[in-house]
Specification:
Blueprint lengths: L4 E8 L5 E2 L3 H5 L10 H8 L3 E2 L13 H10 L14 E5 L10 H7 L8 E3 L7 H14 L5 E8 L11 H9 L8 H4 L8 E8 L9 E10 L8 E2 L2 E3 L5 E3 L5 H6 L6 E2 L1 H23 L8 E4 L7 H10 L13 H4 L6 H10 L9 E8 L4 E9 L1
């Protein structure tokens, strides 16, 4: 089989960075009041800025598919004719613009220069971007494709705006209950960000400049053991099962904010770090890889609150990583879900700091029902 290399990396973010102090100017005030949880969540996640694909007035500026297409175009800044050479588009997201058609073909619609190519759209949440990468990696490694593009993108912001919760708040007022949305819905409003990242994967490294050889990509799911932790378009019942939006009336969908993104924060804190990073030890043993050989450790985290938790679990498993090897840009980019790991790789790839032979370990936990993806890259 061929080898597979990431030869180019790009990102696209919409508009200007939004600082913490401006967030509610974009997201709005639920029931006309500032969020009670905002300060607490921001203090823990330590995010300083993020990006939204709409204006303060609520006017959309980009679709998810459009942002993804812009990231793909930026892989070829000096020669857009190279778009014609792409033979696979593999696209991951957890926030598509529509249920159907697929997210991937909608991106393809923004890239008419590519011609007729294979398109695939792995679903999921944070791991969706890694699944997209793995499909592209395997296609090149099997010599089925020569120039594959993996892209990951998110457009969470419309689901975070105050008007999404207005019907629920009014229903609470009618029932003479506290007109504040629950913490599981408010929690993610202060963490999520919009944007896209893209990789070009080829069977040969760049003739000049660095490339990243994909050594392996491995993952695991604990959905057979654990209930859903983060969900959208569903209602979590007392027994832990999810009731689909399809089984609610239109009125119930609005009154319960069924299409808001929800997070079971207690379950998140208990499970997200231990499950995946305990399993990392088994994956490394299976691959015969020594954690001491890692030069850069890129963990996708939704909050800096989890940084010390990951550090503790790695130490417990005998695979510690010194903090000087860690890299994340969560503070400046926010949590861009499936695209976060692409944006971290983009920043470090284009930093000019990488040296031949260095090893980069990617770690992507997904809290939706506890899935994890890990990837080892070698600078060449």
């Amino acid at each position: 089989m061929s080898e597979a290399f990431i030869t180019r990396v790009s990102k696209f973010v919409p508009n200007q960075a939004v600082a913490n102090e401006e967030m509610e100017e974009y997201l709005g005030f639920i029931n006309g009041k500032s969020s009670k949880s905002k300060a607490i969540v921001l203090r823990n996640n330590k995010i300083k800025s993020r990006y939204y694909a709409y204006t303060k007035e609520g006017v959309p500026t980009h679709t998810n598919a459009e942002m993804a297409s812009q990231a793909v175009r930026q892989l070829f800044p000096g020669n857009p004719d190279e778009l014609k050479e792409i033979d696979l588009l593999s696209a991951g997201t957890s926030s598509p613009d529509q249920i159907m058609p697929s997210h991937g073909v909608m991106i393809h619609g923004w890239l008419p220069e590519t011609g007729t190519i294979e398109v695939v759209s792995p679903s999921g949440v944070c791991c969706a971007g890694m699944h997209a990468l793995k499909y592209a990696y395997m296609s090149v490694k099997l010599e089925d494709k020569e120039k594959a593009v993996a892209v990951a993108s998110e457009r969470f912001s419309p689901s975070l705006r105050a008007e999404q919760f207005e019907e629920e708040v009014q229903e609470l007022i009618r029932l003479e209950q506290n007109p504040y949305v629950s913490f599981d819905k408010d929690f993610l409003r202060w963490m999520l960000s919009d944007g896209a990242g893209a990789f070009l994967i080829e069977g040969k490294p760049n003739e000049t400049g660095n490339s990243l050889k994909i050594e392996w990509i491995d993952g695991c799911s604990f959905a057979n053991e654990e209930e859903a932790c983060m969900y959208m378009g569903a209602y979590k019942q007392e027994d832990g099962t999810l009731k689909s939006f399809k089984d609610f009336t239109n009125e119930e969908i609005f009154n319960k904010s069924i299409f808001s993104i929800k997070q079971d924060v207690k379950l998140l804190s208990e499970k997200i770090v231990k499950l995946g990073f305990n399993n990392l030890k088994q994956i490394l043993d299976k691959k015969g890889f020594d954690m001491n050989d890692v030069d850069y450790f890129l963990p996708h985290i939704s909050s800096y609150f989890f940084e010390s938790k990951i550090e503790e679990v790695l130490l417990e498993n005998g695979i510690p990583v010194p903090k000087e090897k860690w890299f994340t840009n969560l503070a400046t980019m926010g949590n861009v879900g499936a695209a976060s790991i692409y944006m971290m790789v983009e920043e470090i790839f284009n930093s000019g700091k990488l040296k031949k032979g260095e090893k980069i370990l990617l770690a992507v936990p997904e809290s939706s029902r506890f899935s994890y993806m890990f990837c080892l890259l070698t600078v060449c």
